[in-house]
Amino acid sequence: MGARRILVANELTSYRQSIAIVFRELHPGVEIREVDPEALDEEVARLVPDLVVCSRVTAVVRQRAANWIELYPECKPFSTICIGGEHTAIEDIELADLLSVCARVL
Amino acid sequence: MLESGTFVSMTAESGSQHEATRGDRNFVPKPPDNPSRDPAAEAASERRRKGRPRVLMANEPRAYREGIAAVISQLRPEVEVKTVEPNALDTSIERFSPDMVICSKATDALKGGVRVWVELYPENAAYSVASIGGRRMEYTEIQLPDLLSIVDKAEELAGTN
Lengths: 106, 161
Description:
Order of helices and strands of chain A: EHEHEHEEEH
Distance between the termini of chain A: 11 Å
Helix content of chain A: 25-40%
Mean pLDDT of chain A: 96
Number of helices of chain B: 6
Number of strands of chain A: 6
Oligomer: heterodimer
Strand order of the largest sheet of chain B: 1-3-2-4-5-6-7
Low-confidence stretches of chain B: 1-10, 13-36
CATH superfamily of the domain at 51-160 in chain B: Ntrc-like two-domain protein
Shape of chain A: globular
CATH topology of the domain at 51-160 in chain B: Rossmann fold
CATH architecture of the domain at 51-160 in chain B: 3-Layer(aba) Sandwich
CATH class of the domain at 51-160 in chain B: Alpha Beta
Low-confidence stretches of chain A: none
Helix content of chain B: 25-40%
Order of helices and strands of chain B: HEHEHEHEHEEEH
Strand content of chain B: 15-25%
Mean pLDDT of chain B: 80
Radius of gyration of chain B: 15 Å
Number of helices of chain A: 4
Largest sheet of chain A: 6 strands, mixed
Structural class of chain A: alpha/beta
Shape of chain B: globular
Largest interface: A-B, 28 and 32 residues
């Protein structure tokens, strides 16, 4: 099995940084890459991550990432989780939900 | 390394704690023990007993509030961090007597009662505003290290009291 990767590309900066730190601490063997949302498509294509966390899922993410979390799109309280093509909508998602997804896909 | 204990060391109230059924691991913040009928007395009593700087987190949305709280708890273990719903901000200030508050919308009670606070991304904009001992700071795009630095300032100010 190759290196496991999570790409964290959600807005805004301190939010993205805090999520990335939590992931790094809980999954020290996983490469956690933190990028600006503008670089999302390019980095997804380049890294083919096991999980993508973003604020707005793109066509590239849908095509190239098996697992993704669309977190608070347009700052609304609804988020979407996709695991292996299965979508789940969550209102008022919690940090525990994000960690649960990590545990499932890694 | 972050452990589940880091997360349960945070306390949560006003409905922000959820059932521990949504994750594979129990990272759910633990509610406060023995809630007092006298909030002011409880705050004073706890402060005397613990003597730790206190940070109250009331920003939205939830996952980010919890994420930042987890990071502060991990990187500043001497700080007691509590998370509450934004609509519980004013009552929690009275009850918890925080040294610092992070919220999405600063209230009059906050501005009048807490020496250090951060209004984080109000209206979901990228800018943020902080007040540190009465000194106003504006950030076009605040970074996590900025927040940690403000926590350190709050700790310093709390130590001078």
